[in-house]
Amino acid sequence: MLAIMQTSFTGIDALTTADIPVPALTPNGVLIKMHVLPVVPTDWKREANPHATAEQAAQLPRIIGVGGAGQVVAVGANRDPALLHQRVLVMQPSGSYSAYLLSENPDFIFPLPTAVSDASAAALTAGPGTARVLQREISASTATNVVVTGANSVIGLYLLQLLRPQDKHIWPIVSPASQAYFQTQCPDYPAVTAADLPPLTTDTLVIDIAGSEPLLNTLTAHLTDYEIVSIALTEATLPLKFVHESFNPADYRQFIADLATGDLHAPIARTFAVRDTIAAQHYACDHHSRGRVLVIFD
């Protein structure tokens, strides 16, 4: 079967295709034929830096990817036979870019209702789970203002959807080049540039998705009393709190339910064939965020 492999730490262009055996079904396993996979920053960061993750996934060679959407084609003796033939979202931190994958963790498989497409489900990977963490930070904060950097990113767009309704004043920070796109995605949130943020004299929580210390320096010059929570920076000259997603299956079941009802929208940019994964990663890495980039198996 086809798989996309990382064999070195020399960057995106070193990715290779490989023909590897289909995983053997185990009693606790579910065999899934993959259809749609997301392009996520975790992968291209790992491909250039062996220290980008503490997980064993940094050991090479490895199949890239952390999840995707597909259809169950075989179910082990110890798993629910009702899964057979179902479309599912699967999380697979050990690598998902293969024609078939074997999942042995029941918490990592989520059946999909008819109303949720494979593309929308795949776009849930590495997005709303982190946004949920930030939503909880905002809910726990007593700040009256919330400034969000990287508001036009996939995580930013999910966060702003999760915040509705909200009793705090939300200030989405969006670059001039991304403002038109942002307003098509979130018309209820007027965006501002860093330069246009007015002085905020009451308590402010800065949610940092962009991970730019110069941007934070510019923004905090407008603020009197603030706290910074970042998903991108672990340390900086400014005091900040670093947070990351703690995977919660219940959250993903809710995200899927909200996709089905239209209460959540998955931002999707472009799709590529799986053999064009290098081009897909370059597109996602090198362009302004316009939604999740996806790759599709034949």
In DSSP terms (H or I, runs of 4 or more residues), the helix count works out at: 8
Helix content: 10-25%
Instruction: Please outline the major beta sheet.
Output: 7 strands, mixed
Distance between the termini: 12 Å
Tell me the overall shape: globular
| Quaternary | single chain
Poorly predicted residue ranges: none
The secondary-structure element order is: EEEHEEEEEHHEHEHEHEEHEHE
Strand percent estimate: 15-25%
Question: What radius of gyration results from the CA coordinates?
Answer: 20 Å
Mean of residue pLDDT?
94
Number of strands: 15
Strand-pairing-aware structural class: alpha/beta
Summarize the structure in words:
The structure is a single chain. This protein has 298 residues and is α/β, with parallel strands linked by helices. It is 24% helix and 24% strand. It has 8 helices and 15 strands. The strands form 3 sheets. Strands 3, 5, 6, 7, 8, 14 and 15 form a 7-stranded mixed beta sheet that branches. A 5-stranded parallel beta sheet has the order 10-9-11-12-13, with helices on both faces. A 3-stranded antiparallel beta sheet has the order 2-1-4, with no helix packed on it.
Care to give the gist of this entry?
This protein is α/β, with parallel strands linked by helices and 298 residues long. 24% of the residues lie in helices and 24% in strands.
Properties at a glance:
298 residues; alpha/beta; five-stranded parallel beta sheet; 8 helices; 24% strand; globular
